[in-house]
């Protein structure tokens, strides 16, 4: 890297770090449960980031990682394989640094998602075959002389899991004055696997007794691979729950830091999303519903064992971007999903603390 490029990188790192100083410590919201249970549920609200999702942290870490490795210089086009929140967040940071950003995504991607990326200054490159998205992104970056961010490979190594205001450190700091400051469980989904790796490693590094549960939507490869310990499993289908679930086990997923995995049906994710939104007084996304379903089951298990403590999960993004899908009864019906059963399970749990076996 030449001296002018090195100076540009210093300035770029300063700009990205300034964003972290402004926005990293998101709110930790209590989810009301009966006080007699002796169990507290908290949701880390990642939707309050400037780009509206948990992926803002990932995008910032990926940019810092690439800058410090010398992979990005002035004028380097940035390419990513993403049709969702990661692309929105990476477009934000690329524009901050004056760099071109291109998201490679399936041609079936909704106009709403495309508009969110374009609003942040990004461009969208559509491909007919969704299975070629990663290969196309890598090829396109090479043709442009750009950098392929490759979130699915670098997510777990780009984040400083020992601290430096990562999401795990923030959670424990915010719980410091609560009645159960060390959570019994933290519940997250896996898309890249970066968040679960960060939280699992940090809990072990700090010698906390917290256990990590990863919830996985139907159709994703993470859960069956974890059950069988066969990391070559490929389901050949995508996830309907945006931001989590993958058709293959991605390189960033670190199963050895996961204490339990739970598979969550898509209908249960959406029913919990809607129930959570009603309780919180604001709309949350589908992956938050997946998290809540997993958290409710663990809380019921703690109650049945006579244990008290706290459980923490995430609001991954807001529900506004899903008005035409997850919050549309017509869309839900077209997907063949029936929400009444899981909705009844949730309402019964919130009243009694009981969770049906196998749910």
How does this structure look, described?
It is a single chain. By secondary structure, this protein is of the alpha/beta class. The chain has 2 domains: 55-151, Rossmann fold; 163-352, Rossmann fold (3-Layer(aba) Sandwich). Helix content is 43%, strand content 14%. The protein has 13 helices and 10 strands. It has helices at residues 3-23, 55-68, 85-96, 111-119, 133-144, 151-158, 167-174, 194-205, 222-228, 266-280, 286-304, 329-334, 340-352, and strands at residues 28-31, 39-45, 78-81, 101-106, 123-127, 147-148, 185-189, 211-217, 260-264, 309-315. The strands form 2 sheets. It has a 6-stranded mixed β-sheet with strand order 1-2-10-7-8-9, with helices on both faces. A 4-stranded parallel β-sheet has the order 5-4-3-6, sandwiched between helices. The longest helix has 21 residues, at 3-23. It is globular, with a radius of gyration of 20 Å. It starts with a helix and ends in a 7-residue tail after the last helix.
């Amino acid at each position: 890297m030449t001296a002018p490029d090195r100076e540009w990188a210093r300035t770029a790192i300063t700009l990205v770090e300034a964003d972290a100083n402004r926005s990293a410590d998101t709110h930790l919201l209590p989810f009301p449960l009966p006080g007699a249970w002796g169990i507290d549920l908290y949701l880390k609200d990642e939707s309050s980031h400037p780009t509206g999702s948990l992926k803002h942290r990932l995008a910032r870490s990926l940019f810092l990682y690439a800058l410090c490795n010398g992979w990005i210089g002035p004028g380097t086009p940035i390419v990513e394989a993403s049709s969702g929140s990661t692309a929105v967040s990476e477009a934000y940071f690329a524009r901050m640094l004056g760099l071109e950003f291109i998201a490679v995504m399936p041609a079936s991607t909704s106009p709403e998602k495309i508009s969110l990326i374009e609003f942040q200054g990004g461009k969208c490159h559509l491909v007919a075959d969704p299975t070629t998205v990663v290969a196309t992104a890598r090829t396109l970056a090479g043709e442009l002389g750009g950098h392929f961010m490759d979130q699915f490979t670098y997510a777990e190594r780009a984040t400083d899991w020992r601290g430096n205001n990562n999401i795990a450190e923030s959670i424990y700091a915010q719980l410091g004055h609560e009645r159960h400051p060390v959570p019994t469980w933290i519940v997250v989904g896996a898309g890249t696997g970066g968040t679960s790796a960060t939280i699992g490693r940090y809990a072990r590094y700090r010698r906390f007794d917290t256990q990590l549960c990863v919830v996985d939507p139907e159709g994703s490869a993470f859960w069956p691979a974890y059950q069988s310990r066969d990391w070559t499993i490929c389901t050949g289908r995508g996830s309907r729950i945006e931001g989590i679930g993958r058709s293959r086990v991605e390189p960033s997923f670190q199963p050895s830091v996961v204490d339990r995995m739970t598979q969550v049906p898509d209908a249960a994710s959406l029913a919990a999303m809607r129930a959570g939104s009603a309780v919180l007084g604001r709309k949350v996304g589908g992956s938050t519903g997946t998290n809540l379903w997993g958290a409710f089951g663990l809380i019921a298990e703690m109650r049945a064992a006579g244990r008290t403590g706290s459980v923490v999960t995430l609001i991954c993004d807001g529900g506004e971007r899903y008005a035409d899908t997850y919050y549309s009864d017509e869309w839900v019906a077209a997907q063949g999903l029936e929400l009444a059963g899981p909705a009844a399970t949730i309402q019964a749990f919130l009243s009694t603390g009981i969770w049906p076996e196998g749910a």
